[in-house]
Amino acid sequence: MFMKIKCLRLLPVVLVCLGFQWRTVAAGEPNGETDRAPNVVIFFIDDLGYTDLGCYGSTFHETPVIDQLARQSVRFNDFYSANPVCSPTRAALMTGKAPQRLGITQWLNQPNELHLPLEEVTIGEALSEAGYQTGYIGKWHLGDKDIHMPQFQGFDWVRCVNRGGSPGSYFYPYRRNGKKNKPNGIRFWDIPDLENGKKDDYLNDAMTDQALSFIKDNQKRPFFLCFAHYAVHTPIQAPEALVEKYKAKLKTSGNQIKDVIVERNGARTRPVQNNPTYAAMLENLDTNVGRVLQEIEDLSLGENTIIVFTSDNGGLSTLASRRSSGGPTSCLPLRAGKGWTYEGGIRIPTMVSWPGHLKPGESSVPGITMDLYPTILDLVGVALKPKQHLDGVSLVPVLTGKTTGELANRPLAWTYPHNHGSGHSPSNAIRMGKWKLIQLTDEKTKTEDRYELYNLQADIGEAKNLAIEHHDKTHQMAKRLSEWLEATQPEESSRD
């Protein structure tokens, strides 16, 4: 059996970042009066749409803690997931590579032989090698065998990682229909490490308890925690008291559905945010993000902790069923949602906070999931690994207000060569500046209908196709897209 051996570098390392100097504190070394490397916490939210948060425009959902975090952060208005669905984007976060390089372009159904290649140097390994205590909690969805779990990909402390991509239930015992594990196996959707709960315990609360323990136990040394919430992925479940709050709010909000939006292929998009249970899930998530942030403050770690908040894809607003009114949320004014290469499927809320080091503000410089790996290394002063994070670039110039036109105008591209339960049919996409090209690759699509060109600056909802009107731009971008697809072909790798 192939086992990745983690290289531990316990010798002091001098780190330089943004004019500040510190050294890595080896695991277990007392902090004392010496400076130390900053901690890093990533909140990696599942299926969180661009407009799901108050700070990104929601008037129905209440997210006061995250909204306050946004005011204290560099908030990105044009940040994208690497893919319209979860597993590929998660692979991109861990590796800094476009997911198709890894052979992962679709969410990993179970059982599945696909997994994050073990030879990849994950961001967990990169920080572990620099002296960090590394922790992972929650959704992984990058392989379902023991050897494919986060503990073999650079994470020292791992909790609540199941074999699938969603929980069986958000309520204890976190299983489908309350059933116990099979006698000789583990159900894919069961959540481990939370066996000592009680009736009505809620998953977000229980996972946050685990995260607080990790932070408290590692407060004297630099730590990296990736907190990958299962919320707000299905099943849509929330504490009843919160659900009742939003049912009451709905009666006076005016958020009633009158007409659904019919997408191509007959898919249906929810036009308003008005699901009380989904809103309640979000408020509970918001509360638990606040519990982590408060713990960091209570331990006097606030100015030495970098917070990254992001999502794995757009919100679930569009479904293929012609009998539905769409998914549990709305991404408007963005078109469609999870599973689509339209903006609703790939534009995501993202913010980075580091009190005392990064000046809060907003940025319209486009970024993408792969950028987070080199950005974090750059922020904490660890040498970049350009041979690893091939498709990501450090956004530190953006975070420090020193951005260049080169970053603002670089091409970003996507491929999702699959049908999806949201109604999406295979497509590719590329953004260059204000322009966005979508290439429909379904064999049923007529040649003359293959390209859609949008001016995002004037048409964020991607309503007016300019492909024929701007033929030269369409041709130019199609050529760049083809070159990118060729350059990011799957790498040969061991999958033992």
Key words describing this protein structure:
Alkaline Phosphatase, subunit A; eight-stranded mixed sheet; alpha/beta; 496 residues; 11 helices
> What is the count of helical runs?
11
Q: What's the CATH H-level homologous superfamily?
A: Alkaline Phosphatase, subunit A
In CATH, the topology is named: Alkaline Phosphatase, subunit A
Strand arrangement across the biggest beta sheet: 7-6-8-3-11-13-4-14
Model regions low in confidence, pLDDT < 50 over at least 5 residues = 1-34
**Count of distinct strands:** 19
Strand content: 15-25%
The CATH level-2 architecture is identified as 3-Layer(aba) Sandwich
Q: Largest sheet, described in full?
A: 8 strands, mixed
What is the arithmetic mean of pLDDT? 90
How would you explain this protein's 3D organization?
The longest helix has 23 residues, at 276-298. Helices cover 23% and strands 16% of the residues. It has 11 helices and 19 strands. It is an alpha/beta fold.
Topology:
Layout: E1 14-17, E2 20-23, E3 39-45, H1 64-71, E4 74-76, E5 79-80, H2 86-95, H3 123-129, E6 133-138, E7 157-159, H4 203-217, E8 223-228, H5 240-253, E9 261-262, E10 268-269, H6 276-298, E11 305-311, E12 318-319, H7 343-346, E13 350-353, E14 361-363, E15 367-368, H8 372-380, H9 396-399, H10 405-409, E16 412-416, E17 427-432, E18 435-440, E19 451-455, H11 471-487
Parallel strand pairs: 3-8, 3-11, 4-14, 5-15, 6-7, 6-8
Antiparallel strand pairs: 1-2, 4-13, 9-10, 10-12, 11-13, 16-17, 17-18, 18-19
